[in-house]
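fold-stage: in
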Amino acid sequence: MFRTLYFLGMVVGLTLGSCSDATRFKVPLQAKFKSAEAYTQGNVLTVTTGTFERTWELTENGLVTRTLASDGAFEILGDIPEMVDWKLPGILNPNAPGQLISLSANAANDQDFTNEHLEISAEFDYPEQGIRLKYVIWAYPDAPGLRTQLFLKKNSDDLPFTDQEEKGRAEYLPLAHTDQTHQLIGYYNDTQHRNTHANEILKDSLLNGQFYQDWANIVVLRQENKGVMLVQESHKCVNQAGIFTGGYLLDSLGLSATGLGIDHEHITENYRPLWAYWTIGFQGDTTELQTALKRFDRMRYPIDPKRDIYIMANNWGTGSSGEQSKFASREENILKEIESQKDLGIDLQQVDDGWQGLDYNNWDYVASASNATYGTYDVYPEGWKNIKKAAATSGLRLGLWAASHIPGEDLLKHFKSGGFTSYKLDFANLNTYDKFHDFVNKVRTFILATDHKVRVNWDVTENPARIGYFFGREYGNIYLENRKPKTPENVIYKPYLVLRDAWQVARYTNLNKFQVSIQNIEMVDRNGSDAYLHNHPYSVAIALMGSPIFFQETQYYSQEARDQIRPLITAYRKHRHAMYQGYVFPIGDTPDNASWTGFQNHNFNSNDGYLTLFRELNNRDNEHAVQLHLLKGKQIILTDLMTQETVTKQVDTNGWIQFSMDTPADFRFYKYRTP
């Protein structure tokens, strides 16, 4: 028997035998995919992953959540004050009667964009409003939670739109625990301008009692040592609300997610999506919370080793001006970069802005370009032929930058002619429903046209609405931040701030879906950064638990630097496939340039993993205790992957273990295993 995770504070008092014909599932549903299962009894729909279970009551208005548990046991605690999980002001009248017209379940994988799961779809007709609604549930086998999403379409051009004063509701859990302490979690975008000690990338707040907050990606409700969280799958950031992302409301009726993602003006004759939500249960401390979230995140956004594991270099990040960086994208320079990257052990060269010339209206490569600084110069006089051949000879893959408005047919053209497998689409401002979904659909169509041979990476570097942290990672990775040597001043590379951003991103996401920047510390402005007081491997090691990206022209590394970096990359490449099977957790203290800090990568199947541990520049302690996750009371064997020295250590009953480093601005890269 599994432990119960959470019972709802208010549960409908109807028994299975008392429902009317109008609220009874007329055609029974019984479907199973591995450990995931969906079935109906009377007027109750039950969906389970084998670990997490949720039930809904069929009412005259739709479906209303009845219980959340993980052992299949139900407890009737009272009457649910609401009769349907969704509220759609401006679209449906409150308590509008709806008829269930179909209920189905089948194994699915969203056209290979996510892990296989059991997909349950319930379709309702609201004839008085001219609206049809589809409620879709994804049950991943053995997942710690479920994903739900609403879709809407209209049956009439003359919709009787309703009062929009009331807050909408796309997800509802009647959890009326307003006397508890609750947690709200969100991430900031605009990393281009958030590169100071004061500007953290994470907002993590505790609240008591009732609340309405509209900045958070995640809300966590706890009762004793049990908890449930809601995650909005949207592009919301703390400092960018995006499109109808709403907020989280906890009141006497329970927990509501008010972000619909759509308004009545964007409803068409075809089903259109609202924001999806993840409902995830956990039992235990912060480690268990992070574990449940990351397990679900990995199922939703899986990693394909053939496509998603690579070290990238992007030539933009060395230049001191746009003209200089565009000049770096020409063929002559990219050929030098391919040779340099082959020597270092880098996998993928991404050609940044400039290959198309100096404007953003043409999306073919140009033979030449001209500006005031460099005069007229060759760009790609023979097209992609020469860099494609050089990359193939050197065993590298190629990537391509483009502005977000590049037509899909041009993306496909360059895939076919240049063999580019990784794309970065820049300058997006997805501030309307149509802009957002047209852009995402263009990317999806492009990837399908290549039979999933390519991935598209997004970025959170600017404040305009883009993809955010919890959306779109089935299509590629998130590029976290520009960090450059000299200009502009607001993005000068500072090691501890890059480390802090990655450390905080690793708390509530899977870091290996985020690109973490590496810069040439010899070139960084000494007046604006203390990077020069570190060594080159330290800069590289910061990125190893994420998706490493050398945001620079690597040819400018000195021979001494190359000799330092190469052994670390060699060690990383040997172990990275195993690392991508693990889950990354932050360890130590928050990076502040004076801490012991780092990352733990844990594989739950083998119960082993990896550590990258940093003693920061201004830290005075040669020895320090660090608390590890998931290893309380265990003996572990640590292997230093740079020296191959092995030592056996005992983790105490609270997870603490002692480490030592003789000098500050140093790091260790360990593999650990339990005997």
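fold-stage: in (second)
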Amino acid sequence: MRFFCAFSMIFLSVGLYAQTTDNLSTQIADSLAFQKETGNSVVVLDTIGKTNLGYFPKVSGKYELKDIELPYWIDTLWLKELYNSELYNEMYADVTRENFDEVTYNELPTDTLKARLERLNQKTPFNVEYNPELERIIKSFLTNRRQSLERLMGISDFYFPIFEEKLDRYDLPLEIKYLSIVESALNPKAKSRVGATGLWQFMYQTGKMYKLDVSSYVDERSDPMRSTEAAAQFLSKLYEIFGDWDLALAAYNSGPGNVSKAIRRSGGYQNYWNLRPYLPRETAGYVPLFLATMYVFEYADEHGFKPKRTVYPYFNTDTIHIKNTITFDQISELTGIDMEEIQFFNPSYKLDIIPFIKGKNYTLRLPKESIGKFVANEDSIYAFVKAEEAKREKPLPKFFNQDTKIVYKVRSGDVLGKIAQRYKVRVSSIKRWNGLRNNNIRIGQRLIIYPRSIPKSQTKSVTKKHTKATKNQETNGNSKYHIVQEGDSLWSISKKYPGITVEQIKLWNDISGTNLKLGTKLKLCDC
């Protein structure tokens, strides 16, 4: 444990530090606590200076809570993998594909596949029967999707225990956990072109039906626990209606009405494979992809898959109810937990803010060791947060409009944390805007930044540059466009406009594939 000035420690031990420190008598309006930096620490006290609510030592300019000091490393590359949108794009492309090409995969003879599918059929209520289309999909996965599937297998280590617990509670087949891979590629932030969101891809109204809270701060469709509970309830109801799991899955994808229409158009058939020609194209590919995914995961060892396993199993995390509005920045600053880690464990908070609202119970999920730190210092943490609120000129933003862009040239001594603090943004945001894979930057490197605050010395120059940049872009009212040129792809276009992803371009322009026509005018905003 780090030792500080003996003089300071004496005052801390008898609780008199607050009464003897100079200039700590001034009260802060509408605040229960205030703070004062003293050397290498921050002491948090009540407004009349009678109670020492907490003591945050600082090491190398960072707060260090005094509770548990067990080292608990997180693989940041794995965390990044959990939000990798490429996996969702690949899965969505497969779902909407009309047919799969014949693939030569000698390692899986047809007879072997038939025998394995029969064994799957015996242990699951789904109709796992061999047909040539299913064989083409499975062999295409094994040939073309091996790397993606290994990544998904690694991610599933965290999510599948959550799914299995909820499915078991509702007496549903545990194999339904594979449906989330087809739906979202296990990305809690996944959003389809029609607005379906989260691991289980709930539309807004369907989410509301199953009591998923969607507000300016929160979207519980992205919450693994609550959305899985809703999915289990929804699937239970669909099975009650159709009495067949294949049809229940089809109805989950396209709605019960489309399945009923397909039954009528087919002349009364109720077997999924007979109904396939009468279902929407996306739904026609939905169940086969689910069965193919089930096969690959169940026989992963036989096909030599070697997934990278999670460093944070779900059962090694815990939650605590929040008693005051708190930002991810504050949690990260006080506990030393990476922002990316907090975002992963709490994906339902849209603005990286956990609100405190009367009548609502919002929770913070972290690894158990970190939760222990938080609980042990809870009063001090909330006192610190209230002190921060009192100093803030404006209330927490509901939305941040990224309409001002600057180009920052890295100088000697710069690190991402220092740059982020200067412009009141997050390190993770700077990395996303500039396609950075790690925190390494070099002198002279130019970084795109959308600042929340600009130092006064830079205000005039930034305004001038922003005005000039705006003139160079083709605009139509408030809309911004990109004209497709030779050699352009969705990926290359997204790289030209930091902060814009391939998924957003597809959504804003109603694009389902990747082909672009020369001269096409693409919208670069949701407008």
